C-alpha cells in the first residue's frame, strides 16, 4: 500500500513552491461570482497536485476546488484539494495563503496536510498520530477564558444575511476578547488554532476543501471542532467552529446568542 501522507506532502510542497515562485506574477484574474476570484496560479497549482495524486492513486475520487469532482473506481477514497487557500490575499501579494489537501475514506477524514510556503511550515495530522508542524508535535492553547482569547473568522463573499450576522459576531467578540483576526486563509486559521497561536476560529459557508484537512489537524492537536451551535461537524455544510476545547462552550453560547439577537432585529 502506498503511503498517502508521503504523496500528499510531496504534492503540497511542490504546489507551495510554485505559489511562492509566482507570487507577484498573477497573469489572469477571473470572477467565479461577483467577489469570488480565481487566478491562473490557482489552476496551475491544482494541475500539479492533481497530476501527482492521480499518478499515484488513479482509482481514488478527487474533489478539487477548480476542477470539481472526478469519480474513481469505487474505492470510497476521496481527496479534497484546495490548491490555493487565500486567493484574494495572493492576488494582492499579501503573504498569507496555503495549500490544503485532505483524504477521506468511507466518509471519514483520515489525513490532513496544509502547507504555508512563505514560512515553510507544513502542518499534518492522521487519526491517532497527533498533529505536527514540520518535525514537532503541536497542541492547542491552554487558555480557559473567552475574554482573554485571540480568535479568527472569515466572511463569505456571497451571502448578505451571513455577512451581516458574521459582522455582528465580529464586532461583539472583538469587544469581548483580545481580538478577532480576519486573515483570509481558513486552512491556515485552523492550523493556527492547532498550534496555539489562536484560541478559536469560526466561519460560515466554507467548502469541504477549505476545512477537511484543518479540522482534522485541530482535533488531533487536542482541540474541538463542531458546527456553530456545538453539534457534530459536517465539512460539507461549511459551518465550522474550532477551538482549543476550553473556550468552546462559551464561544458557542456567544455565537448562538448573537445570531438570535440579529434574527430578532430582522423580524
Ligand atoms: C477562502 C479563504 C478565506 C475564507 C473564504 C474562502 P479561497 O478560500 O479560505 O479565508 O474567508 O470564505 O473561500 O477562495 O481563497 O480558496
Ligand atoms: Ca479555500
Ligand atoms: Ca482556493
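^ Assign residues to that structure.
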Amino acid at each position: 500500500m502506498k503511503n498517502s501522507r508521503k504523496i500528499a506532502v510531496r504534492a503540497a510542497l511542490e504546489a507551495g513552491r510554485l505559489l511562492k515562485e509566482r507570487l507577484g506574477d498573477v497573469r489572469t484574474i477571473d470572477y467565479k461570482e461577483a467577489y469570488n476570484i480565481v487566478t491562473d496560479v490557482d489552476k496551475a497549482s491544482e494541475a500539479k497536485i492533481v497530476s501527482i495524486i492521480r499518478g499515484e492513486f488513479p482509482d481514488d475520487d478527487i474533489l478539487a476546488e477548480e476542477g470539481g469532482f472526478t469519480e474513481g473506481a469505487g474505492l470510497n477514497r476521496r481527496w479534497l484539494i484546495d490548491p490555493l487557500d487565500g486567493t484574494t490575499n495572493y492576488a494582492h501579494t499579501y503573504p498569507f495563503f496555503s495549500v490544503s489537501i485532505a483524504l477521506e475514506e468511507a466518509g471519514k477524514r483520515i489525513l490532513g496536510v496544509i502547507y504555508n510556503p512563505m514560512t515553510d511550515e507544513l502542518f499534518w495530522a492522521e487519526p491517532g498520530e497527533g498533529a505536527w508542524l514540520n518535525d514537532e508535535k503541536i497542541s492547542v492553547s491552554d487558555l480557559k477564558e473567552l475574554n482573554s482569547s485571540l480568535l479568527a473568522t472569515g466572511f463569505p463573499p456571497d451571502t448578505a444575511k451571513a455577512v451581516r450576522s458574521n459582522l455582528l459576531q465580529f464586532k461583539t467578540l472583538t469587544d469581548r476578547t483580545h481580538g478577532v483576526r480576519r486573515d483570509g486563509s481558513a486552512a491556515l486559521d485552523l492550523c493556527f488554532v492547532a498550534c496555539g497561536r489562536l484560541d478559536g476560529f469560526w466561519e460560515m459557508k466554507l467548502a469541504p476543501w477549505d476545512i477537511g484537512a484543518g479540522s482534522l489537524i485541530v482535533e488531533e492537536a487536542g482541540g474541538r471542532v463542531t458546527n456553530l451551535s456545538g453539534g457534530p461537524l459536517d465539512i460539507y455544510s461549511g459551518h465550522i467552529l474550532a477551538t482549543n476545547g476550553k473556550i468552546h462552550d462559551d464561544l458557542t453560547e456567544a455565537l448562538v446568542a448573537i445570531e438570535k439577537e440579529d434574527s430578532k432585529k430582522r423580524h
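The chain has two domains: 2-138, 146-266.
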